[in-house]
Specification:
This protein is mainly β and 206 residues long. Helix content is 0%, strand content 41%. Strand 13 and strand 14 form a beta hairpin. It starts with a strand and ends with a strand.
């Protein structure tokens, strides 16, 4: 509301100030949502094996979400050459059912020792936002060793012997060594030992 002035047309030196009226009723309204206006941030991709990569990211800037984020599209395609801009992305959809959802996805079924282009988009009820800048990642030439199977072989009053074995994968070399991590149940500190074989004798302290 603005304060109004009324000037007497007969006497220009006479001014009357008109007061403010009572306010109108309050009207509540809410603007409609829009598709996200910004891309996801801090995109990273790590090769996990010869056929899979792990992609992580952070949500778009809060002021550019324009409504609750319902999920993300993670796109990937083979990168043929450095200047390649052809080919369409294959998308994997990750729904964000709540805000505690981990913003990461694992893409499987990829080709060994191949470079891929990765991009991520956020979406809400109105559609998808702009894509992030593409990042490049290459699947591994060979797979990491499989998880060893541990076994308590022997035990005495003062020592234990731990043995283990690993399954051989099709695109993985046999392990050349192992790192054994150990800690006391009452401690948070882990000790590590590099072992060339498949067993270790551990002397127990009283």
């Amino acid at each position: 509301m603005k304060e109004m002035l009324l000037r007497d047309m007969v006497n220009p030196n006479y001014v009357q100030i008109v007061g403010r009226s009572e306010p109108s009723q309050v009207v509540h309204f809410r603007t409609d949502e829009e598709a996200p206006g910004g891309p996801p941030l801090h995109i990273k991709a790590i090769p996990m094996s010869s056929s899979s990569v792990r992609v992580t990211w952070k949500p778009p800037k809060k002021e550019l979400t324009f409504g609750p984020i319902m999920g993300y599209y993670v796109g990937y395609k083979v990168k043929e050459t450095r200047d390649d801009t052809t080919g369409s992305y294959t998308y994997k959809t990750l729904e964000a059912k709540d805000r505690s959802v981990n913003m990461e996805a694992q893409i499987n079924g990829l080709t060994r020792a191949t470079k891929y282009s990765i991009t991520v988009q956020a979406f809400n009820s109105k559609g998808s936002g702009p894509a992030s800048e593409e990042i490049l990642v290459q699947t591994l030439e060979k797979d990491p060793p499989s998880i060893p199977n541990l076994k308590l072989s022997t035990k005495t009053a003062n020592s234990i012997t731990i043995t283990w074995s690993s399954e051989t994968k099709a695109h993985s070399d046999n392990p050349t060594g192992y790192i054994v991590y150990m800690k006391r149940s009452s401690s948070d500190k882990w000790d590590s030992f590099e072992i060339p074989g498949s067993s270790i004798l551990i002397q127990l302290k009283p």
